[in-house]
Amino acid sequence: LVQDPAPGTTIGGHTTSQVMTLTATDAAGNVSECTFVVTAMDQTPPTLTCPGSQEISLDENCEILVPDYAAGADVMDNCDPDPFVLQDPAPGQLLYGHNTSLTVTLTAMDSAGNTSVCNFVLTTKDTTPPDFVCPEDHEVPLDEYCQAAIQDYAAITVVTDNCDPEPIVVQDPAPGTIIEGHGTTQVITLTGIDVH
Fold first, then answer.
1. Phi, psi values for residue 157, rounded to 5°
2. What is the pLDDT of residue 134?
3. Which residues contact 25 (CB under 8 A, 6 or more apart)?
4. HSE-up of 145 (CA within 13 Å, CB side)?
5. How deeply is 104 buried, as exposed, middle or buried, from its count of CB atoms within 10 A (0-12, 13-18, 19+)?
6. Contact partners, residue 119, CB within 8 Å, separation at least 6
7. CA separation (Å) from 44 to 47, 83, 110, 112, 171?
8. Are the C-beta atoms of 195 and 164 separated by less than 8 Å?
9. What do you get for the CA distance between the two ends of the chain, in Å?
10. What is the pLDDT of residues 59-115, one digit of tens each?
11. Maximal CA-CA distance, the chain
12. Which of 126, 172, 188, 191 lies 20 to 30 Å from 155, alpha-carbon distance?
């Protein structure tokens, strides 16, 4: 029995067809043949690697748009040089609020319809500190004991934050701290703190 093409012949490409012929010859020289078609089918899914779970910083409005991870996906396929990658949710979806988590799914599909899926988690983070303006350096009058109590500057400081509607201001040294003597200088530090 003779096979044409010979065993081990390579057939390349999805849906490529090859006509096979088998020929049998007996001792008397009588010959019988049959033919059939072998079609190569790609059944191997693409290799897809997702990025690791990530933290992304919120903008000045406490929001962020989901980036496009499909465009830069690490994907390879045995037959298709350019597999299609779909992202869910799609790039541009709005996320808002500190510590919001979202699972992103990437699906790679080759030209034969084979698919691979991977997932990773995005977590939003508020990395923007509160914003405020410190008072200017200034002089305070001393009382009859040559003293002055430091006022509550934190209470009169207007502070805003991208995510926290009620950030606080901490003052050091604390309001009411006494300073003494003409020309004495005291550095006061105000620190804005948001809920995150």
1. -90, 125
2. 94
3. 2, 31, 32
4. 6
5. buried
6. 50, 103, 104, 105, 106
7. 9, 12, 9, 9, 64
8. yes
9. 79
10. 999 999 999 999 999 999 999 999 999 999 999 999 999 999 999 999 999 999 999
11. 136
12. 126
Length of the chain, in residues? 196
Tokens of residue 54, six digits = 């990530």
| Residue range 113-166, pLDDT digits in tens | 999 999 999 999 999 999 999 999 999 999 999 999 999 999 999 999 999 999
Structure tokens at 186: 């005291």
pTM of this structure? 0.76
User: What's the distance, CA 62 to chain centroid?
Assistant: 16
Q: Are strands 94-96 and 115-125 parallel, antiparallel or unpaired?
A: unpaired
> DSSP secondary-structure letter at 62?
S
Residue 90 is encoded by which pair of tokens? 């799609």
Contact assessment for residue 120 and residue 50, using Cβ atoms and an 8 Å cutoff:
yes
Name residue 75's amino acid: V
d(CA 73, CA 157): 47
